[in-house]
Every structure is written in structure tokens, then in C-alpha cells.
């Protein structure tokens, strides 16, 4: 497998809501025939596309999120990442977040070499209370994710998850109940052959 594949910028949305049995996150299963992470349960998300650069940003990003996203980031990419987060959420789940104001940047990870595709993914946490629709209505979803469901953090561990998703879940559980934005954003940097774990402040 090639180790010099292009690294595409991507955005992932972790929708969180409080349930009677604790916090729940929205996850879905990728198709078994997918090239990247087939059959895995993941959060909604995907690569930034050209339209994300051209679409006016709905609302204003939290200043801390804005600053941290801009670290080691190409010009114009910050609003494109936020637009991609809202677009991918809408396409993959049918759920609509009308503004980027509630997006909290909580994690960044670059896919290690040797994978069929590589992404520089930024993970955004947002409370489902800010959706402009019924959080249980997935009727508008496209078919990229199946078995969309709200699952407890404990229950999610029983799914077939990518490694990075397990790490993100652990971070979310550790940070649950703390004030946002977080003190720092963990960054799993695998641009080189040896990965590094850093913090974005």
C-alpha cells in the first residue's frame, strides 16, 4: 500500500445529547464495500469539497475554535471545514444544524501511512439541542451510513470502531460535564512515518 497518498482535509461531527441513562452520541455504520473503513461504526463526516469553500459561512465560529482550527491550516480552509461539518451531517443523517456557532473543535487526527485513503480530520462536538429539526428523524439521510442511532458512550464501545473513534470517545467521556471550549485539542499527527501526539492550545 502506498505511503504517499494525498492527505485530504475532512470534518467530523460528534452530536451529543443527554439521555436518561447518560450522554449519547449519534453513530452510523459504513457500507461493507466502502474503500475506507468498511463496515465500521463512525460519526458523520467526510472530506471538504470545493463547494465548502464557496458557501457563505452560516454564523460565526467560537473564537477559540477559530484560532485552533487556523493552526497549521491553509488559507480559507477554516470556514470550509465548518461548512463541510454541517454539509456532511445533513447528507449522512438528514439532520440540520443552522449555524456553525455551536461547533466546538475537540480533536484532530491524520490517518497513518499505509491506509487506502488518508485524511486530516477535525472533530467537532455539538449539542443536539442546537439542531433545527427532530433529532430522531433520519428520513432525509443519504445512504452512506446505515443503522443510524443514538448510543451511550459505553454502548458504542461494543461496536466495530476505528481506532481513532475509540480514542475520541474516551476523550469525550473524560471531558463530559466540563466547560467548553476544552483546555486543549489533542492532535494525532501522522504526516510522517512516525506518529506524534501533540496539543493545540
TrEMBL record:
Which residue intervals define the domain Nudix hydrolase in the entry? 6-173
Annotated InterPro entries: NUDIX_hydrolase-like_dom_sf, NUDIX_hydrolase_dom, NUDT19
Q: Which GO MF term does the entry hold, naming one?
A: hydrolase activity, acting on acid anhydrides, in phosphorus-containing anhydrides
Q: Which domain of life is it from?
A: Bacteria
* Cofactors demanded by this protein: Mg(2+); Mn(2+)
A Pfam family assignment: NUDIX
Q: Which UniProt keywords apply?
A: Hydrolase, Magnesium, Manganese, Metal-binding
Could you confirm whether the keyword Manganese appears in this record? yes
- Record protein name field: 8-oxo-dGTP pyrophosphatase MutT (NUDIX family)
- What organism is the protein native to? Celeribacter persicus
Amino acid at each position: 500500500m502506498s505511503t504517499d497518498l494525498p492527505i485530504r482535509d475532512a470534518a467530523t461531527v460528534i452530536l451529543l445529547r443527554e439521555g436518561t441513562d447518560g450522554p449519547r452520541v449519534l453513530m452510523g455504520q459504513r457500507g461493507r464495500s466502502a474503500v475506507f473503513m468498511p463496515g465500521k461504526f463512525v460519526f458523520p463526516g467526510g472530506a471538504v469539497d470545493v463547494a465548502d469553500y464557496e458557501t457563505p459561512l452560516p454564523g460565526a465560529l467560537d473564537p477559540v475554535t477559530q484560532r485552533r482550527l487556523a493552526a497549521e491550516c491553509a488559507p480559507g480552509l477554516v470556514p470550509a471545514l465548518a461548512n463541510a461539518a454541517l454539509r456532511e451531517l445533513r447528507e449522512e443523517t438528514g439532520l440540520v444544524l443552522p449555524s456553525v456557532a455551536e461547533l466546538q473543535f475537540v480533536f484532530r487526527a491524520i490517518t497513518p501511512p499505509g491506509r487506502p485513503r488518508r485524511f486530516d480530520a477535525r472533530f467537532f462536538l455539538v449539542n443536539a439541542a442546537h439542531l433545527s429539526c427532530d433529532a430522531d428523524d433520519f428520513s432525509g439521510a443519504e445512504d452512506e451510513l446505515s443503522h443510524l442511532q443514538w448510543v451511550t458512550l459505553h454502548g458504542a464501545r461494543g461496536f466495530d470502531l476505528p481506532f481513532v473513534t475509540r480514542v475520541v470517545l474516551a476523550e469525550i467521556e473524560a471531558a463530559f460535564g466540563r466547560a467548553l471550549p476544552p483546555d486543549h485539542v489533542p492532535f494525532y499527527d501522522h504526516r510522517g512515518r512516525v506518529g506524534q501526539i501533540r496539543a493545540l492550545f
